[in-house]
Amino acid sequence: MLLTVTTVFQWRDLLTFTALMGGGAVCIEATRRLGMPAGVSRDLLSAWWLPVALLLPPVYALFAPIVLQILLQVRVRATVIYRRVFSSAAIGLAGCTASFMFHWFVEDPRALSQGSGSTIGFAVLAALLFSLLNIALIAFAAHMANPDRPWREVLWDRESVLLDIVELCLGVTVSIGCGLNLALLVLALPPVVLLQRSLLHAQLQAAARTDAKTGLLNAAAWQREADTEIVRARRTGDTLALLIIDIDHFKRVNDAHGHLVGDQVLAGVAATLRSQLREYDVVGRFGGEEFVVLLPGADTDEARQVAERLRTRISHMAIPAENAPIKITISTGVALMSVHGDDLIDLLAAADLALYRAKELGRNRVCIPAVQPPPRPLPKDPTLDPG
Predict the structure, then answer these.
(1) Which residue among 43, 106, 337, 376 sits deepest, i.e. has the most Cβ atoms within 10 Å of its Cβ?
(2) CB-based contacts of 87: which residues, under 8 Å, 6+ apart?
(3) Active-site positions?
């Protein structure tokens, strides 16, 4: 409220704000037919929010995300309102803080168009501040929603860092062009729209490979990845292990606590698997309460150690429920390439047999199928020896 009272509204600023929001609206409409992937998705709307923070008084940065979030809710995908409200608040707070920082050092923000090195440097610093604050707020909310998820997963990965850099560059570039002449937004719009469409298309492709409840590879995508690794291991002669993991008595969880809590259990197990495995291990949800893991380069001892570590970690998990936290255990079957089979079907069959054995022995354990020794050759009958 204080910002609104102390801000002197000028027609030039209102026109700039309207033009930038119009650019964001065109971006949204141009990509609307593609749809948006489920869950948390990324876009390039910072290319419009950041110029608002740099070129206009801070109060405009508070209102900019509200306008575009309403448009996303109405025109693209309706989601629960509190998510839109939180997103608007996080972006608005980050943008307003970055705007205060930039205007503190730069009296006339339109000096960006003059190409001054110091002004552009302050703009980059403000953009970094905007990005860091926004990421921190979103990561905090994601961690509170799923405390078992490691901070490193909700903060950054290589792709998100690259995308943040692209957003920063786009936002500063659009700000400079807008400062030169508002009509230059017409030239900035096509490349931003193209980048936005490419980003959404890549996310939709990734979503088609991903299980919605756990974020792991779905069965079809996991099988393709596993086949590729098996062919590579067969060619190089490397070792390889396959695990089938089953949540013990998962039906009891659904019956006693409901399917929403059951989904939290699945998500918690998936998060633990990701945190305990290497980046190049192939992890997927096979269906129901079963998960599959391919361990390239693992021999018998390493596969057993990994399986036992996963079993221990998951047994220490506590999934929040109404009455008391839910404790779960897993049973795991292990199969080794060139020991229990040479292709995916054989390995899955061997690991499934071992999993069945683990359940028979009381669950909450790891089993590896016994290898049948090769048949011994029959002794020669001396009466048939022609010599």
Answers:
(1) 337
(2) 65, 69, 138
(3) 289
